[in-house]
């Protein structure tokens, strides 16, 4: 797995996959896609990066411990559910905000925040597992 | 079609149970996975099989155009698959660690927690 | 793309009224537990903060659950359905007296445990995710107690399972791996069986909402529903370690550190048996009647075999594991006697088991720490050196066996009353021998548990030296507790034992609550009404 071709092409694949994962996550509200599948794509990118350049470089590049990212994901998913407390509705009720940007209307919502939370949870957990398995006998 | 799937579910669960009866941890793990897939297929079948389209609301409409497939079993199965995957990976790592440190893949020889030569209970107060 | 004003009439599927913020007490415990676990996962590297954050989160959970319990006692079961949906759409959370009460007991036990581990662990050491996993476990337990949806119950079971997997292997000793494998495989198999019965339930009834199941189940094929109930009994029986499928519990509960096994013993099996009670008594009462002989046999076998196992066992925490199984037998005996007294006694017993079993394992942890041994034959001579610990263990042993006036006596009294009433012995008519056998088994269980417990007590505290040598001498091999261990470990355990003793001395309110809870379980109309479904009386 350490050929020149793979090492040269890996950064390109990784960056494309990361951008694509964000696209898949955001389109997920009304079309196939979503935070779960987006997070899986991003975690696969991290796994490929780890194969090509070694676990240490990946950990340095992410800067944050992947499991902390997962924790942050759960946290903001919970926060997105708590927001409906202020609108007099039950937990997890969606709140929509339509931003009028002149040419187009940008719909923002709490399900989107929830989905980003899911994205981060999946990304964090699967990356942590992948990096631990790629590293030599490391603990998660 | 339901009958075919019911037979397949039965085969999956029978195969899974057979593997689970093995002494080898890896076979047991495979058995659990096959068993879990059988269960997922059962939920899918229980949600009624249709040849209708995927449950996606077309752009510009507020409700689906005509009959659609039942989305609930799909959501249930997705949840079950994710959980099953997490459990499987944990148990796989556990079995590997046990192989490393207990040197045992065979559950018969795995007697650290329950020693085979445990002494008789004391007879007096 | 969604538009601001949908053209579809949603009034049949969604709530149009405003939900008051006070209704949120039913979901806040879960949200706090999950978000606390997430926060602790982020704070893993920060030493010193983790225990404080964990305790604050659990204190917040306790506050919410006290409010929830007060509300349930006042107005009956309360419910909230996520995302403004109307049941049976959407995931419902519903608390009745038993659910809210057990959730409160579970979080109180967790708070005491968090204080207890401060004595054991290096200060502020949370880098292995211990605190995060404890909160995740509490989230799973609370969710299982409060949910009103069968599939959601499965999800909380798995949350609980994955957290307990993490906790049982912390430390990574070979014995823990061994225990974790048996625990992991069999519990995962149990949840697979649960999922299997969920799939069949959905296929037969088309719904997984608990109140909706109560309404729809009578019209389904009784034979098929009995099969589903049998599968549920197997799945929850495995989770609860009821007799024929109990082997994993004594094989695994003694392997992790004492604090972790205390948490497991207090919470996990109780969730299993509570789910069994909810599924068989509330959701599928007709199938429960069909399964009654089976339930009674399971209860009798668990009640008799568990204390015999404890007598035969020399490893202290393994012997306590058999006490846990005996308690499960008592609860199942209540499920097999579906009267107000029977179900009330079963619910009361779950509360007693949550508190007493945790306390027993905490004391066992202190004893193991003092002697450095896990085998009761090699302990001994603690009585003279540490009288307080011997008193704590003695009180808990009496409470577990059900000696008046301790906590375990009262639920057993209710169960005996239910058994005698059902046996028809007092009326002088036809005698129901199965109920009579349950009564005998309950009494035999108390005697056998007392024998097993007092013998453990004598071996651990009195004997100093090899078997046959009778003495009350102070053992010279003890490693005295440090100040920190005495303050946190012994202090927390004493508080929990004090709760057990006080609850045993003043059981009147608990009797009232048990009767109300059992009433809602036997006649679920108030429970159904809480969901807002037709068919229940408001």
Overall description:
The complex is a heterotrimer of chains A (140), B (125) and C (538). With 140 residues, chain A is mainly alpha-helical. Chain A has one domain. Helix content of chain A is 66%, strand content 7%. Chain A has helices at 4-27, 35-53, 55-62, 66-82, 110-134, and strands spanning 96-100, 105-109. The model of chain A has no long low-confidence stretch (mean pLDDT 88). By secondary structure, chain B is mainly α. Chain B has a single domain, classed as Helix Hairpins (Orthogonal Bundle), CATH 1.10.287. Helices cover 58% and strands 0% of the residues of chain B. The longest helix of chain B has 31 residues, at 71-101. The radius of gyration of chain B is 22 Å and the shape is elongated. Chain C has 20 helices and 2 strands. Chain C has one domain (21-531). Chain C has helices spanning 28-42, 50-75, 97-120, 130-146, 150-168, 174-205, 210-216, 222-240, 248-252, 258-283, 285-312, 316-336, 340-371, 382-385, 387-401, 409-423, 433-462, 483-505, 508-522, 525-531, and strands at 78-81, 92-95. In chain C, 71% of the residues lie in helices and 1% in strands. Chain C has 538 residues and is mainly α. The mean pLDDT of chain C is 88. The longest helix of chain C has 32 residues, at 174-205. The chains are: A mainly alpha (140), B mainly alpha (125), C mainly alpha (538). The A-B interface holds A 30-32, 36, 129 and B 56-57, 59, 78, 82, 89. Chain B: This is Monovalent cation/H+ antiporter subunit C. Chain B: Keywords: Cell membrane, Membrane, Transmembrane, Transmembrane helix.
């Amino acid at each position: 797995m350490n050929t020149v071709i793979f090492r040269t092409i890996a950064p390109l694949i990784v960056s494309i996959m990361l951008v694509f994962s964000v696209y898949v996550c955001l389109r997920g509200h009304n079309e196939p896609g979503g935070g779960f599948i987006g997070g899986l794509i991003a975690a696969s990118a991290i796994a490929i990066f780890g194969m090509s350049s070694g676990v240490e470089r990946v950990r340095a590049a992410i800067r944050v411990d992947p499991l902390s990212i997962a924790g942050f994901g759960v946290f903001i998913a919970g926060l997105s559910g708590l927001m409906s407390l202020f609108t007099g509705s039950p937990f997890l009720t969606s709140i929509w905000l339509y931003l009028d940007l002149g040419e187009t209307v940008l719909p923002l919502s709490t399900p989107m925040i929830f989905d980003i939370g899911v994205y981060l949870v999946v990304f964090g957990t699967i990356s942590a597992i992948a990096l631990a398995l790629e590293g030599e006998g490391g603990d998660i | 079609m339901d009958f075919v799937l019911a037979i397949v579910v039965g085969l999956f669960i029978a195969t899974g149970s057979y593997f689970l009866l093995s002494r080898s941890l890896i076979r047991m793990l495979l058995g659990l996975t096959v068993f879990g897939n059988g269960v997922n297929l059962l939920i899918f079948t229980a949600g009624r099989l249709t040849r209708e389209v995927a449950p996606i609301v077309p752009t510009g409409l507020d409700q689906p155009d005509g009959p659609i497939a039942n989305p609930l079993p799909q959501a249930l199965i997705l949840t079950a698959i994710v959980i099953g995957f997490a459990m499987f990976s944990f148990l796989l790592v556990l079995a590997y660690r046990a192989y490393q440190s207990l040197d045992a893949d065979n559950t018969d020889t795995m007697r650290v927690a329950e020693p085979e030569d445990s002494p008789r209970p004391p007879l007096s107060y | 793309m969604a538009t601001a004003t949908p053209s579809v009439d949603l009034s049949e599927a969604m709530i149009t009224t405003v939900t008051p913020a006070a209704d949120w007490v039913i979901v806040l415990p879960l949200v706090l537990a999950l978000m606390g676990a997430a926060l602790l996962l982020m704070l893993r590297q920060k030493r010193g903060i983790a225990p404080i954050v964990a305790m604050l989160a659990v204190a917040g959970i306790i506050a919410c659950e006290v409010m929830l319990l007060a509300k349930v006692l006042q107005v009956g079961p309360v419910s909230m359905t996520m995302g403004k949906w109307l049941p049976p759409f959407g995931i419902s959370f519903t608390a009745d007296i038993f659910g809210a009460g057990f959730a409160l007991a579970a979080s109180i036990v967790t708070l005491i445990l968090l204080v207890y581990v401060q004595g054991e662990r290096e200060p502020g050491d949370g880098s292995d995710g211990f605190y995060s996993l404890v909160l995740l476990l509490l989230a799973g337990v609370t969710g299982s107690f409060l949910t009103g949806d069968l599939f959601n119950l499965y999800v909380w079971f798995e949350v609980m399972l994955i957290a307990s997997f993490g906790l049982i292997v912390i430390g990574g000793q070979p014995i823990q791996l061994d225990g974790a494998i048996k625990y992991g495989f069999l519990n995962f198999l149990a949840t697979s069986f649960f999922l299997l019965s969920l799939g069949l339930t959905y296929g037969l009834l088309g719904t997984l909402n608990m109140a909706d199941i109560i309404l729809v189940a009578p019209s389904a094929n009784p034979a098929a529903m009995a099969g589903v109930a049998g599968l549920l009994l197997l799945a929850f029986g495995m989770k609860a370690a009821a007799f024929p499928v109990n082997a994993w519990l004594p094989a695994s509960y003694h392997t992790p550190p004492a604090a972790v096994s205390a948490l497991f013993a207090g919470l996990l099996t109780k969730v299993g048996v509570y789910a069994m009670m909810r599924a068989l008594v509330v959701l599928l009462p007709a199938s429960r009647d069909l399964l009654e002989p089976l339930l009674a046999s399971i209860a009798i076998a668990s009640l008799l075999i568990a204390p015999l196992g404890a007598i035969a066992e020399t490893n202290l925490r393994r012997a306590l594991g058999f006490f846990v199984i005996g308690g499960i037998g008592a609860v199942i005996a209540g499920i097999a006697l579906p009267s107000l007294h029977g179900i009330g006694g079963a619910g009361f017993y779950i509360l007693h088991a949550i508190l007493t079993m945790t306390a027993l394992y905490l004391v066992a942890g202190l004893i193991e720490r003092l002697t450095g041994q896990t085998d009761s034959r090699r302990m001994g001579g603690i009585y003279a050196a540490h009288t307080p610990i011997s008193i704590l263990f003695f009180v808990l042993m009496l409470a577990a066996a059900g000696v008046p006036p301790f906590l375990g006596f009262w639920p057993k009294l209710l169960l005996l009353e239910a058994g005698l009433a059902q046996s028809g012995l007092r009326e002088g008519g036809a005698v129901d021998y199965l109920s009579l056998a349950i009564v005998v088994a309950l009494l035999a269980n108390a005697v056998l548990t007392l024998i097993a417990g007092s013998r453990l007590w004598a071996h651990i505290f009195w004997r100093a030296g090899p078997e046959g040598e009778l003495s009350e001498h102070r053992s010279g091999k003890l490693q005295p507790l440090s100040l920190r261990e005495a303050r946190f470990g012994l202090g927390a355990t004493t508080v929990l034992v004090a709760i057990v003793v006080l609850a045993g001395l003043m059981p009147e309110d608990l009797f009232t609550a048990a009767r109300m809870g059992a009433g809602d379980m036997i006649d679920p109309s108030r429970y159904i009404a809480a969901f807002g479904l037709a068919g229940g009386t408001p």
